Each structure stands twice: as structure tokens, then as C-alpha cells.
């Protein structure tokens, strides 16, 4: 198997039956709002795709979190003109109680709801997760990611991992994860891969986190690909 531009091909030259690619080709700073909290990786560009829907990231945006009026075990996130929709996946970071990965269950123009423990009103940031949503693709696929980046300052540790979100509104962290210490004087590379049997309703998300502290990460290039195997 090889990669040719934005097209994933088998080594014999045959285009894979189901595949997807997204990439970051211009410098972006990924804001880390809280150490060890998973977050999306900024705004991606879509490449070629067949059998998936590409989800381009967005954010982070500062928001206010509050309990739902029904008290039914969910929270409402207030964020003006957020442009999110039901079934989008977001990370919440920088709050005291709600850091995590969530599927949106309801949305208006300025608010959205996610399922979470109904604790107290709070505030923090949300980021729309980038990845691939299952459309017609099923069966075994190889997911590969590569990141070239530098820490905004000092020598800091970061992790990258794939989460599998499904129709039950949960996102499960997969193994393995990629871990890398980045300095701020030169660009370093990190990457990883995962084999996953894609099922109906799957959303495959690529997320990252800072494990040293909340130092931002300056990404110069990244790509995330999927191909049937």
C-alpha cells in the first residue's frame, strides 16, 4: 500500500474500495486548555474519500456549561453561533467537571446538549473533533496518522490517539497511542496506526492532549488516512 498525493492506493496501483484522507498543510497552533484533557486538532482540509464522510475540526471556543432544565443527566453548552449539529462530536476542556469527548444530542443556534453527569454550572472550551464518519464503509480498515510539530515553548510531552465514537453516544479510546516530546527549537515528527473493523454508525476521531501541562502545540503538517485492507 502506498500514498500518492491525496489518493490512497494499493502497491499494485489499484485504488482502495473505501478510503479517506484529511490533512493540515499550513501552520496552526493547537490550543491546549487543560493538561491531560483530550482535544481536537484544529481545522483540517479534506482529501479524497469513498465510503466515509470527512469531519473537519473547529474551535476551540469558550463556552458556559450548565445543567439541563430537566435535570435528566445532561448539560447544556452555551456558545453563540456555534454551527454544530446533532451527532457532531466535541471535546470539552478547561472545566472542573466536564472534560471529555461527547456526542451532541440536541442543538439550537446558540446552545447544544451533551450527555454528561449533571453536576454544577461551569465554564470551559469546546472543540469540534475531526475524523471520519462511517457512510458505506464496513469491515477492516487501516488508520494512519502523522504529525510534524513543535511545542510553543520548552520541552513538552504530548499524546495522539484515535477514539471510536458510536451510535450509543460514547467515544472509546483505542490503543496504541503515539507519545512524543516536542521542543520549541526544531520540528519533530510523531505518527501511529490502528486497525479497526468499521461498523455502522462509527465515527473515527483523531485527538491529542498535552501531558506535561497546557503548553500549546504548533503543527506545521499533519495527515490522517483510512483505507480498507
Using brief descriptors, characterize the structure shown.
about 230 residues, mainly beta, Jelly Rolls, Elongation Factor Tu (Ef-tu), domain 3, six-stranded antiparallel β-sheet, globular, disordered N terminus
Total domain count: 2
Distance between the termini: 9 Å
Number of strands: 20
- State the CATH superfamily name of the largest domain: Sf6-type phage tail needle knob
Q: How confident overall, as mean pLDDT?
A: 85
Order of secondary-structure elements: EEEEEEEEEEEEEEEEEEEE
Any guess at the CATH architecture of the largest domain? Sandwich
The assigned structural class equals: mainly beta
Q: Which bin fits the share of residues in helices?
A: under 10%
CATH class category of the largest domain: Mainly Beta
Low-confidence stretches: 1-15
- CA-atom Rg in angstroms: 17 Å
CATH topology of the largest domain: Jelly Rolls
| Shape, principal axes of CA atoms | globular
How many helices? The count is 0
The major β-sheet equals:
6 strands, antiparallel
Strand content: over 45%
